[in-house]
Design brief:
The protein is mainly alpha-helical. It has one domain. Helix content is 59%, strand content 12%. It is built from five helices and three strands. Strands 2-1-3 form a three-stranded antiparallel β-sheet. Strand 1 (2-6) and strand 2 (12-16) form a beta hairpin. Helix 3 packs antiparallel against helix 4. It is elongated. The model has no long low-confidence stretch (mean pLDDT 94).
């Protein structure tokens, strides 16, 4: 499912909600390509640290965990930066996934 977010400057972002298959297969690279450098670095460091101590298995597990939560984190950070749902359907989807409570 996808939502459309728009900021006051007119910039529109089409963002997927739910499980992130790209994060599942490509680890921190989707965050890096989206320009979300903070979370790309966090995912890389956690995967590196856990993988070093568990011979790679911890890195795989952290990748699976981030696949479930990264899209939600990304949307919440966009909302904090001033993005709002561009239409009523996007607002309803964000409410149903409990990412936001209600927009005025």
């Amino acid at each position: 499912m996808r939502v459309i977010l728009k900021n006051d400057g007119g910039v529109v972002k089409d963002v997927k909600v739910g499980f992130s298959w790209t994060t599942f297969f490509f680890s921190f690279f989707p965050a890096l390509f989206r320009g979300d450098l903070k979370w790309a670095a966090i995912m890389f460091i956690i995967s590196l640290c856990l993988g070093a101590f568990t011979m790679g298995i911890g890195g795989l597990i952290s990748g699976i965990v981030f696949s479930f939560v990264y899209n939600k984190i990304y949307i919440k950070e966009l909302i904090e930066k001033g993005y709002r749902p561009a239409n009523e359907e996007s607002s309803r989807i964000l409410e149903s996934y409990q990412i936001v409570s209600r927009f005025a």
